[in-house]
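FORM 7B: Structural annotation worksheet

SECTION A. Query
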Amino acid sequence: MTPIPLRRGMPVVALGGVTLVIVTLGAPFVGSTGLHLARVFTRTVPFADNVDAQIFFVARLPRTLAGACVGALFASAGVVFQGLLRNPLATPFTLGVSTGAALGAVLAITFNLSIAFLGISAVPIAAFAGSLMAVGIVYALAQARHRGLSTTVLLLAGVTMNAFFSAMILFVQYFASFADTYRTLRWLMGDLDIASYQPILAAVPTMAVAFGVFAWLARPLNLLSLGPDSAESRGLDVARAQRAAFFSASLATGAAVSIGGPIGFVGIIIPHLVRLLVGPDHRLVLPASALFGAAFLVGCDLVARTILAPVELPVGIITALIGGPFFLWLLIRKP
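SECTION B. Predicted structure
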């Protein structure tokens, strides 16, 4: 793919920002129950008696913000993993980080863990802890027989641990009660049905670190796309860049899964669509993917909670219905 000048790609990034603002502002007002703008923000009615304000600030706004955060994290992590592994079909799920997070959440649900921190329930805490465990194991395996970080071994270790964690999830589910199995299944579908801001606020530090590293990674990822030898000949510390990419993308994935569960396909749909618009330059692909990913997931969640209203579908179903055909198109399209 031929790179386009940076200035010509900036309007696409701006379009992503405008789209995100419009979708984020509009989504909380759409649902099975209509809201009156004046009643939502009025101060003449106590909040305890203001149903419109409660629906907006308690039910819909946290969900919209969660969708924006999770979408941006998954899409950005997808870009970084694809650049790190030099594989256009790599996703945030490829290296087993999300499956490790899922195992942590399944254990918390099945054993009814009652731990909580800053008002956050045990499930997101266990999910994030599971993602960190997966990151540590995969990284240790990738460096076990290499002085540097071998992306080939990293990919093989990730795929292996992905399969192992999936088997462990099935093993735990086999001994779970029907109620816990149902809760586990709903969580594994990916859902943004949160009713507080605590999970989002808890993920903010991790998000800040991840996006800060992503901003630095734009140029190193461009160089890594030429190959490790070419990148090193141009002055890049390849091992440092690879470690930064792996850990930042893994942190982003863990934070996203802890909020919304393992929502699939966002990390592969959005990066590829963005590359079709702006080319392969990561200075454009990373910010545009974050913005469009956030807007995309908020839009998918809007569809999930309105298409069969008053029944609300898990947003992971909608992303899978869109992402499955898109993934097949990627496989058969002409280069």
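SECTION C. Observations
The chain has a mean pLDDT of 88. The CA atoms of residues 75 and 266 lie 6 Å apart.

SECTION D. Sign-off
Analyst initials: ____
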